[in-house]
Design a protein that fits this description.
By secondary structure, the chain is α/β, with parallel strands linked by helices. The chain is built from five helices and nine strands; from the N terminus they run βαβααββαβαββββ. The protein starts with a strand and ends in a 10-residue tail after the last strand. The model has no long low-confidence stretch (mean pLDDT 93).
Length: 200
């Protein structure tokens, strides 16, 4: 059975909106688009590239698909080659012109279609796509959460768990990995059931 991985870049206050650029997602008059750029370094780059061999499908929200489809088909290199050759599934409620090779729209029965991806692919990765991530978190439709947490706070913007979380327990799958500019990579696996309680 395959796994659904969620890959997100987030601030310490768990804002994950528009890390890559000013025009990525300006919704809500968000003025910090591109907040990740000054904090990038080779270690994080190597961590991202290290994910590539296992990825055999992408699951993307509509906005992230549009950004990726405008960029990656015109690039070369390990990440571009991987993204261009594997299937891409795009969660959308409307009609969508998908001109990136290997892209397919899903969404009529999003939960059922996402569950079916586990039977087709070993590692389906959701990159960015924060609105879609909210649904996956709420429906527990993921197996692993990979968070790159950066040492800044923004105080505004869409957050990882805003409106999307249900009570869940996760297990840290490996020790945290750090980068020279202070990013920390945390890999969590979703556990069955809900969090326990006790007396301290």
């Amino acid at each position: 059975m395959g796994k659904i991985h969620i890959d997100l870049f987030t601030t310490l206050d768990l804002v994950a909106q528009a890390p890559g650029g000013p025009d990525e997602d300006p919704e809500g008059d968000f003025r910090y688009g591109g907040w990740q750029a000054p904090l990038t370094d080779e270690v994080v780059g190597d961590q991202i590239t290290g994910n590539m061999p296992g990825i055999d499908a992408l699951l993307l929200g509509r906005r992230t698909y549009d950004i990726f489809a405008a960029y990656w088909p015109h690039q070369t290199g390990e990440i571009a080659d991987r993204f261009n050759e594997i299937p891409k599934y795009v969660a959308t409620r409307g009609r969508l012109d998908l001109d990136w090779t290997g892209a397919t729209a899903i969404g009529a029965d999003l939960a059922g279609e996402v569950r079916a991806l586990r039977g087709r692919h070993a590692e389906t990765h959701v990159i960015g796509s924060l609105d879609l991530v909210q649904t996956l978190l709420r429906e527990r439709l993921f197996d692993q959460l990979n968070l790159w947490v950066y040492p800044i706070t923004l105080g505004t913007g869409k957050k990882v768990f805003d409106g999307g979380a249900v009570p869940s327990s996760l297990t840290l799958l490996e020790p945290p990995l750090t980068s020279p500019k202070g990013a920390v990579l945390l890999r969590y696996g979703l556990e069955p059931g809900t969090p326990g309680t006790g007396q301290m």
